[in-house]
Amino acid sequence: MSMNIPQNLQERSTARNLLPLVAIVFSGFLCIGIPLPALPLHVNGTLGYSAIVVGWIVGIQSFATILTRKFAGSYCDRHGPKQSVSLGLPMASCAGLLYLASTWIADPLGSIAVLTLGRLLMGPAESLFLTGTMTWGIGRVGIAKTGKVMAWQGIAMFAALGIGGPLGVAIQQRFGFAGVAWTTIVLPLLGFAIARMLSALAVSRGHLQGLSFMGALALIWRFGLALAFSAMPFAILTSFLVLLYGSYGWQGAGYAILGFSAGYIGVRLFFAHLPDRIGGAKVGAVSVAIELCGQLMLWQAHDPMTALAGSVLTGIGFSLVFPSMGVQAMARVPAHSRGMAVACFMAFIDVASGLTGPIVGVVIGLYGYPAAFLAGTLACVASLLVMWSSARRN
Questions:
Q1: For the chain, how long is the longest CA-to-CA vector?
Q2: Roughly what angle, to the nearest 10 degrees, separates helices 370-393 and 280-300?
Q3: 47 phi, psi to nearest 5 deg
Q4: Per-residue model confidence (pLDDT) at position 7
Q5: Which of 102, 157, 293, 305 fits as disulfide partner to 115, beta carbons 3.0 to 4.6 Å?
Q6: How far, in Å, CA of 59 to CA of 103, rounded?
Q7: What is the four-CA torsion angle of 64, 115, 94, 65, rounded to 10 degrees?
Q8: How far is the C-alpha of 30 from the C-alpha of 26, rounded, in Å?
Q9: What pTM value is reported for the model?
Q10: Residue 124 has what pLDDT?
Q11: Which pLDDT score is estimated for 142?
Q12: pLDDT score of 133 more than 80
C-alpha cells in the first residue's frame, strides 16, 4: 500500500501540470474546428462562390500550417514554449478579427480576399501554439512521459474538432458568420489567459546549437513516416465514410463516425500510459495492426453493422499511434531542440492529411468507394513495414 502512494502523488502532479495545457489546446482548436463547417455555408451560400473556391478557403490554412512548422519549431526552441504559445494564440484571435472584417465588406471579391488573409494567418498561429504546448508539456512532466503528453493533448485536439463541427453550424445558423468570427476572436484569448499564469521553462542559450529542421527530420523521419501512413485511414474515414454509406443506401453514418471517436478517445483516456510504460515500438505496432483490421472490415463491409465495427476498430487502433511514435521520436533529439522536433513530427500529419483526399479520390473514381478502405489497409501495411525497418536498425 505504501508503495502506491508515491505513484498516486506522481500521477496527480502530472495531471496538474498537463491539464492547463490541455485546456489551452482545447480552446485553441475550437477556434479551428468551429469555422470548418461554417466556411462552406458562408463562402458558397452568402458570397456565392463555387465549391472549388470553398475547397481552397478551407484547405489554405493547412497549407499555411505546413509551411510554418519549421518557423514555429525554431521560435519555440529560441524563445521558449510559453512565448511560442503567447504569440500563437493572439495571432489566432487576429485571424478571427479578419474573419469579422470580411463580413463588413459588401463586395464578394473584397470579402473573400480578407477572409483568405485570415485563413493564412491561422496557419502559423496553430503551428506556434500547438508546438509550444507539446514542448511545454514534455518540459513540465519530463521526457519519460512524452506519450502521456501527446495522448492528452491529442484528446483535446480531436474533442475540440468534434465539438466544433456542430457548434459551428449552430452559431452560423443563429448569428451568421459574424458570430463564428467573434467566437474565433474570444476563444484563443481564454487560452492565452491560462498560458500567462503558468511558469515558463528555462531556455537553453549560448553554446547549445539547436537542430535545423532537416537535422530533426534526419533523426525522426522513420517515426514520422509511420505516423503519416497510419493517419491516412483516419483521413479516409472522415472524408469518405458518409459517401460509402450513401452509395449502399445505408443509414447511420453519423453513428459510425461517433463510434470511431468513442474508440479513439476511450483508448486514450484509459491506456495513454502504455507507450511510456511498455515502449512506443510495441504499442505502435499493435495499434496499427488493430487499425488495419478495422480498415479490412470497412473494405469488405456488406452491412452497416460491419462498417460500424470497422470504424470503432479504426479509432481504437489509431488512438495510440501518435504518442507511440512520438515517444520514440522525442527520445532521439536533445532537449534544447525539442520544439523543432515536435514541429517536424507534426508536419507528417499535415502532409498525410493534405495528400490523402486527392489520392484516394482518384482511387474511388476508378474502383468505387469500398476501394478507399483498401487504400487505408495498404497504408497500415506500409506503416508496419516502416516500424519493422526502424526496429531492425535499432
A1: 70
A2: 160
A3: -85, -20
A4: 54
A5: 102
A6: 20
A7: -10
A8: 6
A9: 0.74
A10: 93
A11: 81
A12: yes
